[in-house]
Amino acid sequence: MTAQTAAPTRNTVQRALVMDAVRSLHGTHPTSADIYEIVHAEHPHVSRATVYRNLGVLAERGEILRVEVPNGADRYDLRATPHYHLKCQACGCVLDADMPYHADLADELTDTHGFRVTGHTILFTGLCAECRAAAQEAAIRG
């Protein structure tokens, strides 16, 4: 059964708890472990597997966005519309990049390479403003 022909999934209490946890952490791009900790703190009967499974369902349904982070844990974003991310190499924070999303990249790749793109993500890596300031301060102090 493909995603297009799959039977609709029903909303469950556990899925609502997971979504509430994602909402409460909005803007922080939490990991599945972060979300589990929030859910488990108030509902200890909800298992880690249940949280992880429901994150997968929510991402598959397009209600949240799974941000794949190379060499790190996937992050989740309440903002499910396509956009880019920034990852700090020092503190590990993941932020939304405030810039236009270039949906036409897929068409360009198809035209140029004959490659049918089904989606793409871009994760810029570097230093966040706080870590840059801390590094500059440390350099000044010697």
Main CATH class of the largest domain: Mainly Alpha
What oligomeric state do these chains adopt? single chain
Q: Helix segment count?
A: 5
Read across the widest sheet, the strand sequence of neighbours is 4-3-5
Structural domains: how many: 2
Largest pleated sheet: 3 strands, mixed
What is the distance, rounded to the nearest whole angstrom, between the alpha carbons of the first and last residues?
61 Å
Q: Which overall shape is indicated by the principal axes computed on the Cα atoms?
A: flat
CATH architecture of the largest domain: Orthogonal Bundle
Order of helices and strands: HHHEEEEHEH
Summarize the amount of helix as a percent range: 40-55%
CATH topology of the largest domain: Arc Repressor Mutant, subunit A
Uncertain spans, ≥5 residues at pLDDT below 50? Answer: 1-7
CATH superfamily of the largest domain: Winged helix-like DNA-binding domain superfamily/Winged helix DNA-binding domain
Describe this structure in words.
- The chain is 42% helix and 12% strand.
- The chain is of the alpha+beta class and 142 residues long.
- The protein folds into 2 domains: 1-81, Arc Repressor Mutant, subunit A; 82-142, 2-Layer Sandwich (Dna Ligase, domain 1).
- A 3-stranded mixed β-sheet has the order 4-3-5, with no helix packed on it.
- Strand 1 and strand 2 (75-77) form a beta hairpin.
- Helix 1 crosses helix 2 (32-42), helix 1 packs across helix 3 (48-60) and helix 2 crosses helix 3.
- The longest helix has 13 residues, at 48-60.
- The protein is flat.
- 16% of the residues are buried.
- Residues 1-7 have low confidence and may be disordered.
